[in-house]
Amino acid sequence: LSHGAGGRAMGQLIEGIFHKAFDNIWLRAGNDQSAFTVPGGRMVMSTDGYVVSPLFFPGGNIGSLAVHGTINDIAMAAARPLYLSASFIIEEGFPLADLERIAESMGVASRGAGVPIITGDTKVVERGKADGVFISTSGVGVVPDGLDLRADAARPGDAVILSGSIGDHGIAVMSKRENLEFDAAVVSDSAALHGLVTAMVEAGGRQIRLMRDPTRGGIAATLNEIASQSKVGFHIDEEAIPVKPEVAAACELLGVDPLNVANEGKLVAVAAPEGAKAILAAMRAHPLGREAAVVGHVVADDDCFVQMATSFGGGRIVDWLSGEQLPRIC
Amino acid sequence: MARVLARPIESRVRRLRLRVRGTVQGVGFRPFVYRLAREMRLSGFVLNDSEGVLIEIEGLDPDRFGEAIRTRAPPLARIDAVDVLELPPTGGGRFEILDSLDGRSATRIGADAAICAECRRELTDPGSRFFGYPFVNCTQCGPRFTITSALPYDRAQTSMASFSMCDACAADYVDPESRRFHAEPVACPECGPSLSHPVAELAARLEGGAIVALKGVGGFHLFCDARNDAAIARLRRRKAREEKPFAVMVRDIAAARQLAQLTDAEEFLLTSPASPIVLVEAVAGKLSNLVAPGLGRIGLIVAYSPAHLLLFDELSRLSPHCPPALVATSANPGGEPLVADNADAELRLSAIADLIVTHDRDIVARADDSVMQIVDGAPAFIRRARGFVPEPVDLGADGPSVIATGTDFKNTVCVTRGREAFLSQHVGGLDNAEAIRFQREAATHLCSILDVTLEFAVCDLHPDFRSVRMGESFGLPVMPVQHHLAHVAAVAAEHRLAEPVLGLALDGHGLGTDGSSWGGEMLAVEGHRWLRAGSLMPLPLPGGDRAAREPWRMGVAALQAANRIDLARALELAHSGVARLAAMFNRGMRTPVTSSLGRLFDAVAAISGVRLVQTYEGQAAMEFEALVRAPRCLPGGYAINDGVLDFRPLILCLAEAGMCGTDAADLFHGTLIAGLADWAASGAASLGTRQVALGGGCMMNRVLATGLAQALRECGLEPYLPRLVPANDGGVALGQAAHARQVIMAKRASGEQSPTCA
Ligand SMILES: [Fe+3]
Ligand SMILES: [Mg+2]
Ligand SMILES: [Zn+2]
Ligand SMILES: [Zn+2]
């Protein structure tokens, strides 16, 4: 890809790639915006920027991630995602073939999820002003009547349900980045969760207090966020948290805690105790929730500590980290 | 040399006012002054006030009195200053103890002290009303810090407030001739606290192999028979403490002598009022091997409370053939702070102890037993708590009040007031909720017994430290201080070293100002200014904190750094992870690096087969040190380039020769000492100083600390070791506070408004 002179031809080339990959009636209309009618009820909107290195990793790439990520942010409000937009910052010199692969997987992800990308933009910037490609996606969705999930809704006694094994995405990316090879390949869990959410809402929508997708910072960051927003604490049971053996092995070698590792196809739900069973059953019946488990519960705690019962009966603090895991032990 | 010249006896009557500062309240100081004045036939008065003790004396030759105050002061008193003012005589009369003028007293609360000789005598005297009473105390002994909630120090501010004195105790309390004159915790069987179980029952259960939790001075202890393998194994299982050594309590120094070879200095510490655990050379075969597996040294402590003494006397009665010895460990479920509250004990100790014995005197401030050892001929702390807190460190000059929050390991908090720095009791690792709450409790308590207005909060650089978040929670300007600078500043502060100072921080890990892991640092420090003058050659740190727990990782990393990853093959049989990690290095895996000396110890302990996985922090280095017989230096075992000290030749020699055990330990320690001394000497020369401050966790290694101090002296340098606070992270808060004050004062002197530092 080149930047500057000849920009017009280049712009058309790029547009062509995306239009072909995302193909739908809105894009075909060729307007600077897309019009759609909204169903009645509360709408949600979310936006996210995607920056990942490497761009391609086992189980996905930055494109599928950008589609799934925004769909999931909308789904965490128990909403049905309707439409997406996508914007691209592309570094000069970025291989066209790679761009085509990314666009293609975005198209597949969006069609698979039934959520079309109806508007977008591309910019090419000078070499060094970006790292390959950055993607920003936005989306809108509609919340079923009577549901209002809020970050401050967790109450002592509530159950914490996790939809499946943790750490897959972060370890897949890390092992690709560090050129590590494990006995069994670790594949990103990148997936759109709105189908799973629909099943949960049908089983016990009003019992769901709130949901989060534990992406960057892992479930440690997610639980700490909820704890401070709801002014409660969590007690988590280490043994109840599913971790794939290959992920556990990689975490051990790298010295990282799976609780701090990113996921892209998992959710954490806090549910009223009386609804937990039905919600869990519905999750387990869905392909993306087969390993779902109750991993802990909410407790009253002014300090908003997330504590994990360890195998020997003690409890340790599960903390969020400012960035990568820096050594701590003196 | 002539001592004090004979002085002509004055015939003139004079009046002096003496202002005494220090730990002079609640330690029997006023009765002492009273008796002294009467003995010297002086009139006047003594009173406590908010600055300490105020005395006026009148009579012939009053100067002798001023001298005697210093030389004959009660054992628990600590006199920092006596200011004398000459007044016109007002005419004779009696010497009196007066009430304080403004109703305020106690500027400083004393540390807890072991039972004194007089109380010991009363405890076993059937004629005394204190006979067999587990809470007997007087102004010369007993609890202080652990029962006091706030200033001023009087009974209403202690957990003795709920016990009203009987007539006999009340009479002692107001009698200047009594040892219990204003002894705030005074109590007797008639009016004071009591144990929940008879001591005889306790003794019988211990004798039968039970684990007993006993509430003591600063918290609960877990006790069991130190000669009973099964009991200790059970305690280890229930506490989830595999191999970390336990301390052993004995009745007296005579019993201690049977278990260990004690030096005079060690005996002095063991029998001091602070009564710490002291690490000493064990006599083999006297105790269960499960007490301190793999180590030649054990922690001994002498019974320090009346309840302990009664317990030991009962145990001796039950088995008179050999002096009883009990494992005595802080009662806490794995890694959490010690339990001090009765209800908490039921909750948290019932799964560990077979019997829980409480009493009804509340512990206001928890404090573990302090732990010390003799290093380079003088006492040094491993853990500083009961018996020492809240004794201050004199910083030598006034400055702003700051609170420093230490690090997340072996945490302590430090508060400064005027020229004094007060280090909190040992809080411990901040990796669990209880410990984080204890840290807040310790900080709050310290502030309330000091009555200070804080101006700044000081903390570490690590973005994910709980202690840093605590520092940010005060609503004060926050000043981060680099970890190893704090280690060095702590040493410089307690020795009040005039600048400049060369600091060696020989440590585990601390976040450097460049974002990397530091831990073997040479720092040049001049007042508030400092720079990193050198470091150990960085080694890969595969797996971050995991490498600190699993020395085999550092073993492989050191071989990788020496470009001989092929030699890792020798370790493959010893640990299943070795082959894979070596393969990862061969594929070019990137890892963080560390200049830590602690991790170098781990690497070498692994390479020489001493320990591949640790069950407690510092185990590899401690076991490696225990193997040393006669350190020797490998010629060419190290290189110094541009301030970087490189031990790769030594690592290669150990690995290639397949050297193990004592040979490896001797060669490593000897070469390490020589290399560090050489390195420090060149650093000191370019800085133009002779003062070398030695700090960091590795200074708990006696072979290293003693050998390095010796080697530095041979180079004509003046080594300074931490004496008043631990060399490990337990002393970091002092260094943080001291350095931050330097920065603040320097900026104030130069007229800047809002100081920051890093
Ligand atoms: Fe340290
Ligand atoms: Mg988002
Ligand atoms: Zn006494
Ligand atoms: Zn009494």
TrEMBL record, chain B:
One annotated GO biological process: protein maturation
Organism, scientific name: Sinorhizobium mexicanum
Family to which this protein belongs: Belongs to the carbamoyltransferase HypF family.
Role played: Involved in the maturation of [NiFe] hydrogenases. Along with HypE, it catalyzes the synthesis of the CN ligands of the active site iron of [NiFe]-hydrogenases. HypF functions as a carbamoyl transferase using carbamoylphosphate as a substrate and transferring the carboxamido moiety in an ATP-dependent reaction to the thiolate of the C-terminal cysteine of HypE yielding a protein-S-carboxamide.
Superkingdom of the organism of origin: Bacteria
GO molecular function per UniProt: acylphosphatase activity; carboxyl- or carbamoyltransferase activity; double-stranded RNA binding; ligase activity; zinc ion binding
The protein, known as: Carbamoyltransferase HypF
Pathway: Protein modification; [NiFe] hydrogenase maturation
Keyword list, A-Z: Hydrolase, Ligase, Metal-binding, Plasmid, Transferase, Zinc, Zinc-finger
EC number(s) recorded for this UniProt protein: 6.2.-.-
Top EC category: ligase
NCBIfam families reported in the protein's UniProt record: hypF (TIGR00143)
Active site: R30, N48
Catalytic activity: C-terminal L-cysteinyl-[HypE protein] + carbamoyl phosphate + ATP + H2O = C-terminal S-carboxamide-L-cysteinyl-[HypE protein] + AMP + phosphate + diphosphate + H(+); an acyl phosphate + H2O = a carboxylate + phosphate + H(+)
SUPFAM superfamilies xrefs: Acylphosphatase/BLUF domain-like, YrdC/RibB
One Pfam family recorded for the sequence: Sua5_yciO_yrdC
